[in-house]
Every structure is written in structure tokens, then in C-alpha cells.
Write a structure and sequence with these properties.
Layout: H1 4-16, H2 30-46, E1 58-61, E2 67-71, E3 74-77, E4 91-94, H3 95-98, E5 99-103, E6 120-123, E7 132-134, E8 139-141, H4 143-150, E9 160-163, E10 171-174, E11 179-180, E12 184-189, H5 196-219, H6 225-229, E13 232-235, H7 238-281, H8 295-310, E14 317-321, E15 327-331, E16 334-337, E17 351-354, E18 359-363, E19 372-373, E20 379-382, E21 388-389, E22 392-393, E23 398-399, E24 405-406, E25 411-414, E26 422-424, E27 430-432, E28 436-441, H9 446-463, H10 473-477, E29 480-483, H11 486-506
Parallel strand pairs: 6-11, 7-10, 20-27
Antiparallel strand pairs: 1-2, 2-3, 4-13, 5-12, 6-8, 9-10, 9-12, 14-15, 15-16, 17-29, 18-28, 19-23, 20-23, 21-22, 24-27, 25-26, 25-28
Helix pairs in contact: 1-5, 1-7, 5-7, 7-9, 7-11
């Protein structure tokens, strides 16, 4: 599978470094653009539309190939502060040299008059969509909130928004007049001919802001409005900004298609997997062999062995099909019609049985924090689904206080929280927590049991309806499983493995 997230990041990273489209020496340079921006800022300051910034600066490259920043009469070498080299014709500048920006507000949550009968859209980070035009919000504020907290003014449609707290660097364009909270800034380029700079920043800021966040985090400084204002922006010529935006849109649209295709493939794969599992447990994946020992004989032998082992503790369960084509279960001397529990009819030589007849089930037990360690002392301690990835165990805890021990070869299944995740214990002795159960097969193929449980997992999940989902021992033990002859179990498992491998190889 293509890592489309990384590919998107790479495209945007190339864009801000001047590596996505070729430079054109005929373009008006970014230094000339910046001079026009400074002239426009002076005009807006005189008209009282923006405030004068005492930290206004000019960044230039000296004859020694080093970068300098001039603030008033002060000159500083900033070469080591700049994150990367930029092409000829580009310029470095501070964020507030090319834009003005405003922070939002959150009206008092306890003041009902600000939220009741909300009329005006109020954006939170969750309402933003990456690089998209946004037209709706989960919440709206009242006319009173707009008057008291936003001076009665809405931010106009077409404004660039960016989150800078919690989820950092998510950019969107307002599709409606609205306001926003204090975790978002609204951005107004000083010069944005045909909205070119706005659209360039829409693509560039997510990468730039994340770089700033990482750098400041090392210093122990949180990202705030002053840090945003001081961000270094690699500014291309205006014409190149337009070319970059067009190319980014083109490439990301292609990635959207790839993602949709991959989603479609994933869906088809899951559907095919479900269908294959269904065929497997219905006796339709491999042909039957009349020479195989019938499942009824296998089950009779398993029940006899269990009875001999458990004695009076053993409760015999026998499921059969009557002459009336109904299914019955005999437990001791009691016979019950269980046709409503039987999902489908079976091939010749197959039988139904409760799972408890064919397995030994071990429930786990939690340990106290002082009973396990991360220093590899003792045996592995498996706590839940977080320890299982792609059917394999991830070991990050150990214990010398083992009690509920799964042995090598057991099938592990999660029974709390994330229900139905499975892995084979190929490690050896491990202690399992209460979120895990360990299954050992008694006379049947354990991998066939695993296939059945994978096909049955939706039923198990439906049984696990509570604040913290969980299935009980009884949920597993009382599950009714279709049993093929033992040799057919082996053929089914092998065929499923072959199909699964082919799918993975093609993937």
C-alpha cells in the first residue's frame, strides 16, 4: 500500500523548498513583491486599518552568502535560524511582514444568552477540514455574543483559517461569513492578487508551522501568537506561487484518487475475506472426501476422553439432527430443540458441537503495577489488544508473579475492550491479563477453530454491549461450531492460507 499521508507531506515539503515547479527568471522576484507589500502596509497603517509593528524587519542575503535581518538600526546574522536554503528569486520573511492575523474567542459557556438561539457560525478546530473550504459548524453563537465578544463583526467568506493549538497547522478557507475560537487564527495577506498568496499559504503553512512547533518544543516553549508572528516564511515570486498552487492541487487530487482506490480495495479485501471464511465453515471451500473419518466419530472420541479426564465434573453435550430435520441438543437426559441457534445445514460427515466440547479455556488475571516490569525479568505479561499486531505478539512487560499461564501453541483472543483480536502464542509461557483468554484445542485443529472464531467475531462483538465491551467465558464456550472431519479441517486451513498469501502477495 502507498503511504499517501507521507506522500502528501513530501509534496508540500517540496513546494515550500522551491523543488516542486521550475523557477522562471522572468518572474518578478520575491524581493520586489516584498517591497510592494511594505508600501501597501504603510498605506493601511496610515488609514488605520492595521497597526504598526515595531518589529518590522527586512531579511536579505549578504555578499558573504549569509542571511541578515534588519530591525530598525539593528542588524543580526540569522543564517543558523533558517531551516533550509531557498532558490534564487525567493526571499525569507517573517509571517507578519506579509499578513495580518487575528485570534478568535470563545464566549462565556455559562452565559446562556451567548449560545441560546445561536445564529452565527462559530468555528472550532473540529469544524476545519484540511486544505478545504468549510461551510458549516457544530455550534452557533447569538447576536449578543457577536456584539459583546466580536464587536459585531463577522470574518468574511474567503478568509484563510489555521489552527495553532492542539491540532496544529490545519488550514481551511471560510466558505461563509463566521467567527472562530482562540485556537484558530484568521489570516489576511497584505497583498493577495487573485488570492494567490492566500492559496499558497493554505498549502505552505501546515508544513511551516509544524517545523516551528518541533523547534520550539525542544526549547520548552509553547506555540503562541508571538511565535506565529515571528515564523520564517519562504516566499516565492507571485507567479511561482500560482504555479505551485496549481501543481499541488493537481498532485493532491491524484492522491485523493489513490486513497479512494485503496479504500475500495480494502473494502473488497475485507468482503472477500469474510466470504472465504463463510465458505470455509460451511464446507464449501474444499471438496469433501468420503474416506475421511466423520466428524461425529471424532466428537464421540473427544467426549469420551473428556469424560474420562473430568469424571463427574464433565457435562456431556451432544447435538444432532432429528428425523424431522430439526436440530436437538442432549445434555445429560435433557433434550432441547435448538434449531433457532443453527445458522445453516452441513455437508455429509460434518457435525455441530458447542465449542466447550473441543477446547480448554483459560481466563486471564490482572497484575498490580508492582508485580510486572519492563526489565525482562520473568515471563512475558500480555495485557490486551495493544499487545497484538497483525496476528503477532508485542511484548513490553514481564512478570515474576505469574499465575494464569498460557502455554506455547495456545490461541489468544481478546475478551475486553477490543473484542475478538487473536494471535497464536508462539513465544512460550506467558501470563495473560483478564482482557485475554487462552484456547487450547482438544482433538481438533486449533487453526480451524481460529477460522471459525474470525467468522464468528461479529456475533461475539454484538454480545459485548456495555460501557467497556466484553465477552464472558460462556459466550465463547457455548458458541456452536460446525465441525468437519479432521483431515478436512487441515485442508480448509491450508487452502485459506494459500488464498490469504496470494492476496497479500498481490497487495
Amino acid at each position: 500500500m502507498i503511504d499517501t499521508k507521507a506522500l502528501r507531506q513530501k509534496i508540500l515539503d517540496m513546494a515550500i523548498r522551491g523543488k516542486l515547479v521550475p523557477q522562471d527568471p522572468n518572474d518578478e522576484s520575491a524581493s520586489v513583491l516584498l517591497e510592494r507589500i511594505r508600501e501597501e502596509k504603510q498605506r493601511l497603517i496610515k488609514e488605520g486599518k492595521i497597526k504598526k509593528n515595531k518589529n518590522d524587519s527586512v531579511i536579505f542575503k549578504g555578499d558573504d552568502n549569509r542571511y541578515y535581518e534588519k530591525v530598525g538600526s539593528q542588524l543580526k546574522d540569522i543564517t543558523d535560524e533558517l531551516p533550509f536554503e531557498i532558490p534564487d528569486g525567493w526571499s525569507w520573511t517573517r509571517f507578519t511582514q506579509i499578513v495580518s492575523f487575528d485570534l478568535g474567542k470563545t464566549p462565556d459557556r455559562h452565559n446562556k444568552k451567548y449560545w441560546d438561539d445561536g445564529k452565527y457560525p462559530w468555528f472550532a478546530i473540529s469544524d476545519l477540514q484540511e486544505r478545504a473550504t468549510v461551510n458549516s459548524t457544530k455550534e452557533k453563537i447569538s447576536a449578543a455574543a457577536l456584539r459583546d465578544k466580536f464587536a459585531g463583526e463577522l470574518i468574511p467568506q474567503g478568509t484563510l483559517l489555521m489552527s495553532f493549538k492542539l491540532t496544529v497547522g490545519k488550514t481551511s478557507i471560510l466558505g461563509i461569513d463566521a467567527v472562530h475560537n482562540e485556537a484558530i487564527i484568521s489570516i489576511f495577506p497584505i497583498i493577495s492578487e487573485h488570492e494567490i498568496t492566500r492559496n499558497f499559504l493554505l498549502n505552505a503553512l501546515p508544513v511551516i508551522v509544524l517545523c516551528v512547533k518541533k523547534r520550539e518544543a525542544v526549547k520548552g516553549v509553547t506555540l503562541n501568537s508571538s511565535k506565529l508572528a515571528a515564523m520564517f516564511i519562504p516566499l516565492p515570486p507571485l507567479a511561482e506561487q500560482q504555479r505551485i498552487v496549481s501543481r499541488v492541487d493537481e498532485l493532491l487530487a491524484q492522491i485523493d484518487i489513490i486513497e479512494q482506490n485503496q479504500a475500495d480495495i480494502d473494502t473488497l479485501y475485507e468482503e472477500f475475506k469474510k466470504r472465504t471464511l463463510t465458505l470455509a465453515i460451511q464446507g464449501k471451500l474444499v471438496p469433501q472426501d468420503p474416506n475421511d473419518e466423520p466428524a461425529s466419530v471424532l466428537l464421540e472420541r473427544i467426549r469420551a476422553e473428556k469424560k474420562a479426564k473430568l469424571g463427574k465434573k464433565y457435562v456431556d453435550s451432544y447435538i444432532y439432527k432429528g428425523d424431522d430435520n430439526c436440530y436437538y441438543e442432549k445434555v445429560g437426559e435433557t433434550v432441547t430443540n435448538i434449531s433457532n441457534e443453527i445458522p445453516f445445514d452441513l455437508p455429509e460427515n460434518w457435525s455441530y458441537s458447542r465449542l466447550e466440547t473441543m477446547i480448554t479455556l483459560l481466563s486471564g488475571r490482572d497484575l498490580e503495577p508492582n508485580q510486572y516490569n519492563s526489565q525482562r525479568a520473568g515471563i512475558p505479561y500480555i495485557t490486551g489488544a495493544s499487545n497484538i499486531e497483525h496476528g503477532s505478539l508485542i511484548i513490553n512487560r514481564w512478570t515474576t508473579n505469574s499465575a494464569t499461564i498460557s502455554r506455547k501453541g495456545d490461541l489468544l483472543i481478546t475478551c475486553k475492550g477490543t473484542v475478538g483480536t487473536m494471535a497464536l502464542n508462539n513465544v512460550g509461557d506467558i501470563h495473560i491479563a483478564r482482557q485475554i483468554m487462552a484456547i487450547n484445542a482438544d482433538g481438533v485443529c486449533l487453526n480451524y477453530i481460529r477460522l471459525f472464531l474470525e467468522s464468528h467475531v461479529r456475533v461475539l462483538q454484538n454480545k459485548a454491549k456495555s460501557f467497556i465491551p466484553g465477552i464472558s467465558r460462556q459466550d465463547l464456550l457455548k458458541a456452536i461450531m460446525p465441525i468437519p472431519p479432521f483431515n478436512e479441517q487441515l485442508r480448509i486451513v491450508e487452502q485459506y492460507k494459500t488464498i490469504y498469501k496470494q492476496l497479500k502477495d498481490e497487495d
